[in-house]
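Progress narrative, work stream C.
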Amino acid sequence: MTRAVDLLKNRFGVSQLYKHDIKQDDEIILTVYWHPLTIAEREAIQKKSSSEDVNDYALQMMIEKAIDKNGSRLFQDGDKASLRREIEASVLEEIQLAMVNAGADKEVKQAKADLKS
């Protein structure tokens, strides 16, 4: 009999990969990939966030989790100030919402197929 923890890891574990395309006029400007957020990562991000501000947490989550198709981080911790001041809020919110809603979208199979090609 399979253990419950093994079933959950196989179905919802951190090996899952999601993606979201940022588009402008039907042109893909940037594709963001990420693995699911774990409780441990959430706690670490909360500690890095400077306050109880939800916007700060969401931005820190995006900085921590966003990767390219090769698995390299898209943003560095030092990018936070620039992202806050120089990028349209709606673009950042689009990425953050995609990350939060990733489980509902279930783009995992497509993202994995993209990485293999």
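Work stream C, second folded protein:
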Amino acid sequence: MYEPQVNDYVRWVTELGQVHEGWVYFKADSVEKKRGWKKPSRYITIEIATKPRKQCDLTTFLHKRIHVCLCCYESNWHELTFIKRRVSKQDDTNPDEISYGAYKKGSL
């Protein structure tokens, strides 16, 4: 089974046939079960869109862009398909223009 990682570009086809594509932006760590507590579900967030922020003071905001993300819980990870990987979250390269091999070699 595919184990998603941050900076992977994935396609998620849900049980209802909906197709979502985007970058894995966050992956929750696994947490040990504590007696008397419900074990938290692991999830990833998939960034499906971004848009620029209006002119603002960047010292008060962590991000220059507004991110639109979906939550995908571990029970749905079997519905994910790995497409490619990027170098980092700051990489703005269009994923359709660059091959996975170029990223892997670090030639960008």
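The first helix runs from residue 100 to 105. No further action is required on this item.
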